[in-house]
Design goal:
233 residues; mainly alpha; 3-stranded antiparallel beta sheet; 9 helices
Length: 233
């Protein structure tokens, strides 16, 4: 059980970092707003943390919905019969499902929010599809509060499988632990990327990975589950 918890923690750290670092919308708008509005470092980090907490809060509500389902399923006798490998199988199954839905989302190229940053560091948001180069008719200037609303309305789905697993195990402690770790890693990654941009240090270009964020998250969950089942991780 201890090894399962350790791997859950590692998975949570990896997913939180990948989800944040490979999504430029988690940090580039803050860097641009900071420069265009001549924010101090304190103000820049304040809005980064506020929007990050809004993002995590809405993600948590989504994850708790999955956790409630998992808690109920954990009472079913069928799961008791193979509880020893339950965590691994759940991660493998959820990982595969998540990968499939992520690829469907990629190939359907659904419309989603996109931030445009101009030479004067002004920031606008609009709906678009990957590959579109047509200037949008409806775009909106981004302010700090607009950023906050966008982050609240854009939760991250990986919280669902991450909280579902300890819920099935009826481990409230592990659920709270994963929430705290996910919150900490997400905020620290956002702050790190914003600091790199604020001081013009530079960072890895991740915009090409943006559309595959959910594929990477699903693959991470799947690999950890396989390691539990077949490699004695």
């Amino acid at each position: 059980m201890q090894s399962d918890t350790t791997l859950l923690i590692i998975t949570t750290i990896t997913v939180a970092f990948l989800h944040t670092a490979t999504g430029p919308d988690h940090y580039l708008p803050f860097i641009a707003l900071s420069k265009s509005k001549n924010w101090t470092l304190t103000t820049t980090l304040f809005w980064t943390i506020v929007c990050g907490l809004g993002h995590i809060g809405s993600s948590l509500l989504l994850g708790l919905g999955g956790a409630a389902l998992g808690w109920s399923m954990g009472k079913i006798g069928f799961f008791e019969s193979f509880r020893g490998n339950l965590t691994g199988w759940l991660m493998v199954i959820f990982g595969l499902i998540y990968i499939v839905f992520a690829f469907i989302k990629v190939f359907k190229n659904q419309r989603h929010k996109h931030f445009d940053i101009y030479e004067d560091n002004s920031v606008f948001v609009y709906d678009h599809k990957h590959g579109e180069s047509i200037a949008p008719k409806n775009r909106y200037a981004v302010t700090p509060w607009v950023m906050f609303i966008i982050f609240v309305l854009g939760p991250c789905e990986p919280m669902i499988p991450l909280l579902f697993v300890p819920a099935v195990q009826h481990s409230l402690f592990n659920m709270i632990l994963l929430i705290m770790i996910y919150t900490f890693i997400t905020l620290m990654t956002m702050i790190l990327m914003v600091l790199l941009g604020y001081f013009s240090i530079g960072y890895f270009r991740t915009d090409k990975l943006e559309r595959y964020i959910h594929v990477l998250a699903g693959f991470t969950i799947f690999i950890c589950g396989m390691g539990m089942l077949f490699l004695n991780w």
